[in-house]
Write a structure and sequence with these properties.
The chain has two domains: about 240 residues, Rossmann fold (3-Layer(aba) Sandwich); about 160 residues, Rossmann fold (3-Layer(aba) Sandwich), CATH 3.40.50. The protein contains 16 helices and 14 strands. About 45% of the residues lie in helices and about 15% in strands. Helix 6 links the parallel strand 4 and strand 5. The chain has about 425 residues and is an alpha/beta fold.
Length: about 425
């Protein structure tokens, strides 16, 4: 079977969607599948995700010219500066730029279709909802190729993403739409009623050798970690406020922050204002799995206080290292950690988050128990040995018009594989 994973462009330096694309491609390649990646717009040569694809011997192709990529990249940088300087301009800028992005993407429909007709893949797997992805879906469908679209978040969310209403017009062209977890499956079933078929396909992480969460920890010091884009919707301000509350009661609590984003300077100012600078360390951006593991192994507990999520890669990475998780009860996160691998809190509630941090800081036995459960859930839900077979079975079913070639052994089925519906 020949598989092409498609994405409009690489969003690095920090991108959960890019991480998912790279992990899917590299693990399929390791499993012996015929897989390549197609981008609408040329990547930057130094992009960490592109470099990791090269390291995995995954072939990467693109449709548009280098000039187009440079122009769009410059436009995104200008928009980012506008967002930062004038936060209230975001809705207006999004509405103004979307027709331009759609027009640019549509120019490459013919080239995209010709490329796919030449390559003749059995299936095209498209991720992220934007103008380039919509063109790729149309081109593959018109070329007579089976298309699967994967929703990596929550449909029509976060608010203000008006383009999603336009993007859904191409979903009936897809043979299948995949959600990331059972809860997100239900959300997609309720909101994406024009889809033909819906199933669950989770993200995965390659895991880490000996990543069992039992590396030596500094005595008398409890370290909580956050790794994500430092943006408002990821909840970093809530974490810093919770840290200040918790530190007043337990001065041995510390937080390590990894990532970057528009809120970084505001978070630094908030850290100083709350007088917790001595309890907060900025790690920077990790760009390779080994750096990710080193960061996760430096923690006692991982924290993801987001306002909206799909199933965050950083939570999976923490679970792979046997770390208990405190996270907002949003999106697919409750499916990820279940009832035994961590604690769920209300998004935006610093007091509740502080209470959860204090509970785990004061109970080493509970931390260890949850860490073991997190590692076990990683193996059951997000490791390549369980996700790659589900991917290949999903591809076979889509290629065979909804009919699997053989009934899989129930003992080998992914726990979420039973979530499938014809809509």
């Amino acid at each position: 079977m020949k598989i092409i994973l498609c994405k409009s462009h690489l969003d690095g330096p920090i991108s959960g969607a890019d991480e998912t694309l790279v992990t899917y491609a590299s693990q399929l390649q390791s499993a012996g599948a015929s897989v390549s990646v197609l981008l609408m717009y040329l990547h930057a040569e130094e992009d960490q995700y592109y470099q990791r694809l090269l390291e995995s011997d995954v072939r990467v192709s693109w449709i548009a010219s280098n000039l187009t990529r440079s122009s769009l990249s410059a436009g995104r940088k200008i928009a980012a500066r506008m967002f930062l300087s004038f936060p209230g301009s975001r809705p207006m800028l999004r509405r103004g730029t979307q027709p331009v992005l759609t027009a640019v993407a549509n120019r490459y429909y013919d080239e995209c279709r010709r490329f796919l007709e030449k390559e003749k893949p059995d299936i095209v797997h498209v991720i992220t909802p934007n103008a380039g992805a919509a063109v790729m879906i149309r081109a593959a469908h018109d070329a007579g190729i089976r298309v699967m679209y994967q929703e990596l978040g929550i449909p029509y969310h976060p608010p203000g993403f008006d383009y999603y209403h336009q993007f859904t017009s191409v979903l009936p062209l897809c043979s299948e739409v995949a959600a990331l977890s059972p809860r997100l499956f239900s959300d997609c079933r309720d909101k994406l009623t024009s889809c033909k078929s819906l199933s669950v396909l989770p993200i995965m992480s390659q895991g880490f050798a000996n990543g069992n969460g039992h590396s030596p920890r500094p005595a008398g010091k409890l370290t909580f970690g956050f790794a994500a884009r430092i943006e408002k919707l990821k909840g970093p301000t809530t974490l810093i406020e919770a840290l200040a509350i918790a530190c007043a009661l337990e001065p041995n609590i510390f937080v390590n922050l990894a990532g970057d984003g528009s809120q970084r300077q505001r978070i630094a100012a908030r850290v100083k204002a709350l007088n917790v600078a001595a309890h907060c360390r900025y790690h920077g951006v990790y760009t390779h799995p080994e750096e990710c593991r080193a960061f996760m192994e430096s923690l006692d507990v991982f924290v993801m206080p987001s306002f909206t999520e799909g199933t965050p890669n950083s939570v999976v990475e923490a679970m792979a290292c046997g770390k208990p998780v405190i996270a907002s009860a949003v999106g697919g996160i409750p499916d990820m950690i279940g009832h035994d691998a961590g604690l769920l809190v209300t998004p935006g509630d610093a007091g509740e988050l502080a209470s959860a941090m204090l509970q785990l800081a004061r109970d080493g036995e509970l931390r260890q128990k949850m860490g073991i459960a997190a590692r076990e859930r990683f193996g059951q839900l997000f490791s390549p040995k369980v996700v790659v077979p589900l991917m290949l079975e999903t591809y076979r079913r889509v290629v065979n018009n909804g009919n699997a070639r053989e009934v899989p052994d129930e003992k080998q089925m992914h726990p979420w594989a039973c979530s499938k519906s014809e809509l």
